[in-house]
Request: fold
Amino acid sequence: MILTVDINNTSAVFAVMDEGKALFMLRLSSDRSKTADEYAVLIEMAFRQRGFDIKSVEGAIISSVVPPLTAIIKDAVALVTGRIPSIIGPGIKTGLNIRLEDPTELGGDFVASAVAAIADYPLPCVIVVMGTAIAMGIIDKSGNYIGGIISPGPMVSQEALASGAAMLSNVSITPTPQVICKTTNTCIQSGIVHGSAAMIDGLLERVESELGEPVSVVVCGDWAETISPYCKRQCMITDKEILMRGLWMIYKKNKR
Reply:
């Protein structure tokens, strides 16, 4: 068993992986003010509540898109497991051919997700992550990571509206039964949820047009269950564990 960790702008997600399957996952908020000792206490308590001895893992691996938190959580994981975690980045073998102008710009989360997608899904494939941003990673039919798309996520869009428009307030991001709504708050909710879904549909059509062939689509992220049901795209696969499974694969590749 190994511990996989993904640090994003909203949360740090921890999963105990055994043979590519998550035994369980837990989520802590991404808080840059916390110390390694504070995170260590939270991690140990959370695992103890689930009846799991965190020191029984054989190793750990981290992907992070929040550099200020990377070292803090790395130290916290080392404290509670007694193992020094690997971190996705230079020096880690992934087997992924990244065809970007600067391959180092690709976040560890997309590196890991792409590794799992290539192993598990038909190519070409688009990974759609619905989180702080709605981001897409495109893998061609030869298994090359050839580029991506980044746009604001639901929460960022909602906060931008509330801060930039005096007559608009914060609302919960909740799907509305109809697209056409009759109150300001439900109009915002419709625009965010249905608008995000329509944007995803439209971008996928354009990706397929640019590639000249159909793609398989895998969705994940905090907002996937809220938004993907309102996409008109058929056969979108929801895979909550794709990133963690990719981290597990990369860990195994580097321990051979």
